[in-house]
Amino acid sequence: MEKQDLASAYRRLKSPNIKTRKRALKTIKAIKKNR
User: Fold this and answer.
1) What does the alpha-carbon distance between residue 20 and residue 27 come to, in Å, rounded to a whole number?
2) Residue 8, C-beta contacts closer than 8 angstroms, at least 6 positions apart
3) Which NCBIfam families does the record match to this protein (predicted)?
4) Does the N terminus or the C terminus of the chain have fewer Cβ atoms within 10 A?
């Protein structure tokens, strides 16, 4: 299970893996929505 925090999500956006990038984007959107 990967960490669901903002810093690691932003780091994952730079990943070459498309699935990872999409998951990171979803995490970021969810965190921003909960603020």
Assistant:
1) 11
2) 2
3) RsaX20_sORF
4) N
